[in-house]
Structures are given as structure tokens and as C-alpha cells.
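Exercise 7. Predict the structure of YbaY family lipoprotein from Pseudomarimonas salicorniae.
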Amino acid sequence: MRAPLFIALSAVLLAACGQQGSQQEQQARREQAQQGPTAPPPVPASATAIRGTLNINGLSQLPPGLQLRLRVLDRTDPSIVPPVVAERVEPAPASVPYNYALPYDPATINPDGRYVVDGALVAGEAVLYGTPNSIWVLTQGEDANADIGLERGGGLPPPDMAPADLLRQEFDRLERSIGGMKRISGERIENDITVGWDAFADSSGIRFARQAIDYDKGGVVSFRFAYKDGQPWILAREQGGVVQMVGWAADGTLALNSDTNDKALDENEVASLKAMAASVYSEAAAKHGG
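Solution. The predicted structure, encoded as C-alpha cells:
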């Protein structure tokens, strides 16, 4: 009878030790969370790094427990998810301005590529303040010095979405919302073509327009134009089942340029499409009253 009793006591002791160990691990995790994020090693002054001053709009003192995330993103090809070339996550400074350093490997940089530095003040997974516009670095006449200004609600396209895909998503979202906007329309005949258009406005002005050109000899070409801050933003042209789209990022770079056959428009075609969108905007704004 002693052997079974010994085995039972051993099992109880092992269970108690396991429970105690689990409690100690939980306590250690709680203490680590209270202490905030662990700081990575300091960046040596001799290290190859992007350096500059970081400011946060409207803030000078920061509470503990936040993190500063710095990244270099490869924006060479806007049709793909921008690869993260370099990243550093560290506890956010107690105050700003803050002199930051983001190390990177020069071997990963293509002299013909395009790169941006992206900063964010984060709490867990939430971005509180971000880089509102692209800050180009390293190539195309830019160097490794870049001052970063973070703004509340700012942030570049997430690294899990290509800039071109983000523009398409925003175009679709805006087009779905035109039902709640004021509609303005017009029509004209020019030589052997008939042009008809309608535009949609909200409290900020003209946001979206559609235009169809009907050629007397046959064939219809349709256009859809999205506007931001009074300027052509994302434009689509459709003929014969082929849809061409162009769109511009917040910094003015052409981030979307392709059609359903994965062909890009040349500079003259992009300029012509943009001029047409601007003309429709002017005509619609005149009828809308500004």
C-alpha cells in the first residue's frame, strides 16, 4: 500500500510545483509589461544609419509605455507590397524633439530604387501618430538625413498593402458613396462626338465625375474621375472591356498606372487623362457654384 500512496503524493507535489511555476511566469510577464518595452542596443555613431530629428505635432512630453517604430520601406514598385528594408522599435522618448538613428544595410539598397523612411508612435498594435507623407531617402538625389514629423492619425499605407491597391480601394469606396451626394450633369456636341457627364459633390466640393464620349462612327469611351482637394486624384478610362487606371499618392507621385492587361500608360496618355479630368471638374464646379 505504500507504493500507491508515494505515487499519489508525488503527483500532488508535481502539480503544486507546476502551478507555482505557472504563477511565477504570469507574475514575471505582468512585471515586464509594467516596465514597458525593452530598449534595443544604442546605435553607434559609426553605424550606417538614417539620422535626423523627430517631432510630434502638438506634443512635447510623452507618457511611458509607448513605442517608437522606425522603418525604411522600398517604394520602387507601387504595384507590390512595399518591402521593409530596415526597422527599429524602441521605447518612445520622454520628450521631443528627439534625435533618432535607424541602421540599415547598404547592400540592400538599389541605387535605381526609391525608398522612404516611415515613423510611428504606437501603443501595442495601434498607431497613435504617424508620418503623413512620404519622406524620400538614400537614392534619387536624397541622402541619409531626414527629419520626421508625426501627426495624429497620420501614417503611410500599411506595409501589407501595395500603394496601387490602396488607391483602387479608396476609388471603389468613394464611388460607392456618390448616392448620397448632390448630382450635377451636362452634355455637349463637338464635331462628330457627343459628350455627356455627371458629377457628384459633397460639402467639400466636387468629389467624383463620370463622362461618356460617343463617336458618330461608332464606339463609346467612358471615364470615371475621383478628386481630392480640388485636383484629379484617381482616374479610370474604359473602352472595349479594357480599364486603364492612374492615381497619385499624397506626395504627388504616380502610384497607380496600369490596365487590365498590366500595361502602363505613357506620360502623354497620363497627362491627357489628367487634363480631361480637370476640364470636367471645372465645368461641374461652375454649375455647382465653386
